[in-house]
């Protein structure tokens, strides 16, 4: 994600802790699922009253269903026994009213929770997005984008569904089951005990099931993340895929992953089917036993027919609450996994607090690297740092070209200035102020960047360029920046600077994008400019034009410019050679050509065809 984001923004720093690792192993420790879910409380808190009222409404509605058997008992023992049709009608009418009230209450519950829970989901998503934006580049280097994406979509949806449904119904059904058993035991305690017997084996089965299901659910959700990554990559890389005729291989990779996911989903379904079967069978066997015992008791005259009817219909009314526990727990487990995955991103190391805006007096000192050392977070701790003992001083208004073989760490070095990565040793100062002692927003206002990979966002050309400037910048600044970058092609676009570009808009050529990125870097007239090989995609003539214009900008800017070709090097006052992670030579182009064999060699490759105009 090395785009030319120059807009001031604060970022989060990450430690390469294990928590930021995209987890491969599906480990969802049972103990943490409840604790994990509890972490949602701050999000649920604002809607707790509405959610609580909805739960109470649902409990009332659900317990109403337990009144049906009591009415039945009254009908059987009263009007039916007395052969009183009027009484039967009255009972039937009461049942109808009960049914309508129950349905109305459930509808009311839905209405109560739907809107606030959509709000909770939106809040979770907003927080995730905001956090992801503030995570350091090192985090994004490490995490597959699909893993982040799937957390913002599938996982959040699972969480919302959990809050709307399983959470409520675990409570509702639990209460209903307790109330139901109280009624059963009150009617006939011996029959009630028969129904209570299966509770113990059911509990054991459920806890075994939950532990197994947790593992599979985690695996499935991680696989969704992997699948998202493949889809995203194949969409973004569609040109490469087509260009190399790789669509078969890509489809194959996709198929394999989706087969894996299918396997995991089937495993989930099998587990669920197993527990469902047990949860249905065991209570029904118990009800059967109670039926036999009850009938014997009625025959013996120890029990009224009405009581048996009521008893059995209560038991049957409890079937759904009991049976649903299996999939409610499954959904809860999925939500726990989703929550865990959500917080894995949210917990990714918060940045070391931004330094407060300090009043350190700044002197005109330019850009200074003092003993800077850098090692990527995922490098072996005892490996040789990628950059070490970097001492450089770019004087105010000076332009320094940074030259080095490919892979020598030039891009890495430039990324240290706007703190996209943090130097692991030494310090960098801007006008005498340590960059780590300034708020990031201020730092990024001072320093503008353009990277090798020019990224444009789905917005108009003008918006893309003005991203590099403060809010007050307008048309005049835009025109000036476009002219510096020799981006006159903009005026020939269908709607000029208002033309939409980026993923959702017009596709621009590599050189056109590079010039817009350059315009973005210079539009804010920054004091410090960091350009990473900004002219690589331009033809020689355009390059010459851009250079001429850039030379004027560079006159009053302190700039660090990564250069591969002699023509770009000539923009600079001095050149530094980066080799083996160190600055091995500093001087003018001519001096280095004379004194450094490596420099001469690096430049000579270009000389054969471009040396003449240089
Ligand atoms: N995010 C990263 N994590 C770990 N290593 C990285 C990361 N980015 C780059 N590297 C490694 O750091 C080294 C220097 O990379 P860098 O991009 O700074 O080189 P460069 O000098 O800009 O090369 P080029 O001239 O090709 O642009 C490379 O070996 C690269 O593999
Ligand atoms: Mg580079």
From TrEMBL:
TM helices/strands, residue ranges: 54-76, 88-108, 161-183, 189-209, 271-296
UniProt entry tagged with the keyword tRNA processing: no
UniProtKB keywords: ATP-binding, Cell membrane, Membrane, Nucleotide-binding, Transmembrane, Transmembrane helix, Transport
Predominant location category: membrane
Domain of life: Bacteria
Pfam families reported for this sequence: ABC_membrane (PF00664), ABC_tran (PF00005)
Compartment list: Cell membrane
GO CC list: plasma membrane
Name of this chain's protein: ABC transporter
Signal peptide coordinates: none
Record membrane topology: Multi-pass membrane protein
Keyword Electron transport: no
Domain ABC transmembrane type-1: 54-334
Annotated segments matching region Disordered: 1-31
Compositional bias segments (type: Low complexity): 16-29
UniProt-listed InterPro entries: AAA+_ATPase (IPR003593), ABC1_TM_dom (IPR011527), ABC1_TM_sf (IPR036640), ABC_transporter-like_ATP-bd (IPR003439), ABC_transporter-like_CS (IPR017871), P-loop_NTPase (IPR027417), Type_1_exporter (IPR039421)
Organism annotation: Streptomyces finlayi
Residue span, ABC transporter domain: 367-605
Alphabetical list of SUPFAM superfamilies matching this protein: ABC transporter transmembrane region (SSF90123), P-loop containing nucleoside triphosphate hydrolases (SSF52540)
GO molecular function: ABC-type oligopeptide transporter activity; ATP binding; ATP hydrolysis activity
């Amino acid at each position: 994600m090395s785009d030319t984001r120059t807009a001031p923004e604060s970022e989060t720093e990450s430690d390469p802790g294990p928590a930021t690792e995209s987890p491969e192993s599906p480990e969802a420790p049972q103990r943490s699922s409840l604790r994990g879910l509890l972490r949602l409380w701050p999000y649920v808190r604002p809607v707790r009253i509405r959610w609580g009222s909805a739960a109470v409404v649902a409990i009332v509605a659900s317990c109403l269903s337990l009144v049906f058997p009591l009415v039945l008992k009254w009908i059987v023992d009263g009007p039916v026994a007395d052969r009183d049709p009027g009484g039967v009608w009255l009972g039937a009418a009461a049942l109808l009213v009960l049914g309508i009230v129950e349905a109305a209450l459930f509808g009311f519950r839905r209405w109560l929770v739907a809107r606030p829970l959509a709000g909770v989901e939106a809040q979770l998503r907003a927080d995730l997005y905001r956090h992801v934006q503030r995570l350091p580049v090192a985090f994004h280097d490490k995490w597959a984008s699909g893993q982040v994406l799937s957390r913002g979509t599938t996982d959040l949806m699972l969480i919302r569904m959990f809050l709307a449904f399983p959470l409520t119904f675990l409570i509702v059904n639990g209460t209903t089951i307790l109330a139901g058993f109280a009624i059963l035991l009150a009617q006939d305690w011996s029959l009630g005990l028969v129904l209570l017997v299966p509770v113990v084996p059911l509990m054991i089965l459920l806890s075994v099931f939950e532990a197994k299901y947790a593992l599979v659910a985690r695996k499935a959700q991680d696989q969704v993340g992997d699948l998202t990554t493949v889809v995203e990559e194949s969409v973004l890389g569609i040109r490469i895929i087509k260009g190399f005729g790789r669509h078969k291989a890509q489809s194959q990779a996709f198929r394999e992953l989706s087969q894996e996911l299918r396997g995991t989903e089937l495993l989930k379904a099998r587990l669920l089917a197993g527990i469902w079967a047990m949860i249905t069978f065991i209570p029904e066997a118990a009800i059967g036993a109670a039926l036999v015992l009850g009938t014997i008791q009625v025959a013996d005259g120890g029990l009224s027919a009405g009581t048996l009817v009521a008893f059995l219909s209560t038991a049957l009314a409890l079937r759904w609450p009991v049976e649903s526990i299996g999939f409610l727990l499954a959904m809860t487990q999925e939500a726990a996994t989703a929550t865990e995955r959500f917080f894995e991103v949210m917990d990714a190391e918060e940045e070391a607090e931004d330094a407060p805006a300090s009043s350190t007096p700044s002197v005109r000192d330019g850009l200074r690297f003092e003993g800077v050392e850098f090692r990527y977070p995922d490098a072996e701790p005892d490996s040789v740092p990628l950059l070490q003992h970097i001492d450089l001083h770019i004087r105010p208004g000076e332009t320094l070209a940074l030259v080095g073989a490919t892979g020598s760490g030039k891009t890495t070095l430039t990324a240290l200035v706007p703190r996209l990565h943090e130097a692991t040793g030494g310090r960098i100062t801007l006008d005498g102020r340590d960059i780590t002692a300034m708020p990031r927003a201020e730092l990024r206002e001072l320093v503008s960047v353009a990277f090798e990979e020019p990224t444009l966002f789905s917005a108009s050309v003008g918006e893309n360029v003005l991203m590099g400037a403060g809010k007050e910048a307008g048309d005049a600044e835009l025109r000036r920046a476009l002219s510096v970058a020799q981006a006159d092609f903009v005026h020939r676009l269908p709607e000029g600077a208002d033309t939409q570009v980026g993923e959702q808009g017009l596709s621009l050529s590599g050189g056109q994008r590079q010039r817009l990125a350059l315009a973005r870097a210079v539009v804010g007239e920054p004091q410090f400019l960091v350009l990473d090989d900004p002219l690589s995609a331009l033809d020689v003539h355009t390059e010459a034009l851009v250079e001429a214009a850039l030379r004027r900008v560079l006159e009053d800017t302190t700039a660090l410019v990564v250069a591969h070709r002699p023509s770009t090097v000539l923009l600079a006052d001095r050149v530094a050679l980066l080799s083996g992670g160190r600055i091995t030579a500093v001087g003018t182009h001519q001096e280095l050509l004379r004194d450094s064999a490596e420099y001469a060699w690096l430049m000579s490759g270009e000389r054969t065809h471009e040396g003449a105009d240089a």
